[in-house]
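Posting this for the archive.
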Amino acid sequence: MISSELLERLRCPLDPKNARLELAASGDALICQPCRLVFPMREGIACLLPEEARLPEGCASLDELPCRKR
């Protein structure tokens, strides 16, 4: 489980200045608040590689994310 202090500091690697991450309701992933990219957690450790993340519904590639279009 990720501590609330660490969660406050974590940011999405695609938009580190603006995009906070939140813990998924299931507790097994972190979700980028603005673009909804889902980063999996393995053995309690977040994998923040964009290539390993699940894309939000309606998005076919990382290039279609709002943070990539800025």
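Residues 25 and 62 are 23 Å apart (CA to CA). The helical segments are 4-9.
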